[in-house]
Amino acid sequence: MASVQISNVKKSYGAVEIMHGVDVPIGDGEFVILVGPSGCGKSTLLRMIAGLEVVTSGDISIDGKRVNDLEPKDRDIAMVFQNYALYPQMTVAQNMGFALEIAGRPKAEIKAEVEKAAEILSLTPLLARKPAQLSGGQRQRVAMGRAIVRNPKVFLFDEPLSNLDAKLRVKMRAEIKALHQRLGSTIVYVTHDQIEAMTMADKIVVMNAGRVEQIGTPLELYDRPANLFVATFMGSPAMNILPAKVTADGISIAGVATVPMPAGLSASGEVSYGLRPDHVTIGGQDAVSADVLVVEPTGSETHITATLGGHEIMIVSRDRVDIAPGSKLPVSLASEHAHLFDAVSGRRL
Amino acid sequence: MSKASLSMRPALQGYVLLAPALLVYLLFAVYPMIDVIRMSFASWNGLSAESRFVGIDNYRAVLTQDPVFWGALWNTLWWTALAVVIPNLISFGLALALNQNVPGRSSLRVVFYLPVIIASIAVATIWKWMYDPFFGLFNSLLTSWGLSDWIVDWLGDRKIALWSVFAAHVWQSVGFSMVLFLAGLQSVSLTLIEAARIDGAGRWAVFRHVTLPALTPTITIVFVLSLINSLKAFDIVYGMTGGGPAQSTQMLAMWAYTQSMQLGDFGRGAAISVILLLITLAVVVPYMRWMFRNPEDAR
Known about the structure:
The complex is a heterodimer. Chain A is of the alpha+beta class.
């Protein structure tokens, strides 16, 4: 276990700078998830921690030691890749023991370590098989086993669940989380799936276009997004953002509804009014009429897409709503959970 | 249309599309092959209207009364053993070097591949000139370096003639395997290499545990192609020495040709061809069977 410190890290390819001074502190034993859309630099940052990409400027330290110029093998890290990266000609046991074999450990010790990791991951019956004879989920577990066997200071995961089907992804999510709780190891995990980030992380780093947008616990990010990007990226379905104006009567939203200023917030002039779909109420005293476009029942919830003053909004209701597309739906936008953002900079007010 | 005829259609379409190629193959490959086997049991001078069945006389004559056959067989086996190893090792080295990000890499790939597209008979002529004892490049270079004592008659000395021809073969064939190896190297997973680096593997360990296993199918193809091409070596030897001096560069395929086309004994020529075919099958078939029995290892 170890802490990882990423300080003012920049990355350029030729003259093009794609990472613009990133700072991420990662505590000992913390499960940190780097999340963001494709091309935001999260995988590049992970690969820089691993030593697979050169750091253009700034420092990366593991356990207080600067590792910028160290080879991957000298950083005491293990990495689980998106496509598992298992050696096809080796058995599961050989794959898992490869790093120890390269390190010249005695055969008996390698066998014991492999068996121990296999036991943790329920891989014992598969030890003699080759990767081609395994399912996607089993391969993923072998990839994790290969990392565990090394007992590294830091585990790095690069979108490890992307190639699995939805059901298996949920199962593996729980397994990885349980593994972290059991081993107590420091994990840096990259994903573009914000559900994965929300459900697994101790701390989430939201990245966009080579910058860190916000760092915080999952609930901090959900409840107090620092800007419009984080507000719309975290949470599914995404937060509704409507143009609004602060007036003497309260907040005039999209010219169709006026709601009181939520407690604890203050603003003036043009703002963006953010409200999560489950905080939009159907009916209510100050309800305004929205035009229903699409109704999606998920079983436990009903997702309704509607337009309000020319803007599309999403409403999530815990109740079963029997309404047809094309009809009118009274909705109330007043909520103590509303968020206000600066209309120009997008920063939280 | 009935269900059965519907399900037959794809198979039928397949046969229709295969038919022209199959016809050409049967006519120009299978029929001559069978006819050579028939001919190997006959006595025929290539001109007469009739041939006479002689049983295994041709085989007996070739194996017991023809010292040139044994010399040619020995040369062919040596040639094959070396041709499978030496040019391919050079090709592999070149492919590894040209797979790196070296300046002028594309041009160098073209340069090394160029000899492959030159006709063997032209390669033979080029090298014959270079080997010329009086005006050739090699002896001129040795003279200009003050190494006149090392001057030899490259194609006229029976001790070295075969290896002089072999050098030309290496020069010509290296590019072909190099391209196959390069294609194989392109398919080596970068992620696997990265995983191995993280696992602590150095350059040699990455090569041994990642690159080499990923190249197994390519190595198999290169091995089989080299083996078959070497066993039937003909044109470059024919163009450079014609089998001489004193049959020292005689090869089985060339001896079969000489027996038939120059000595007019098609029966013996056919018998030598059949023996060559059996040797080829004896080597290639077990290898292919072994390869298909281990699909995991061959992957």
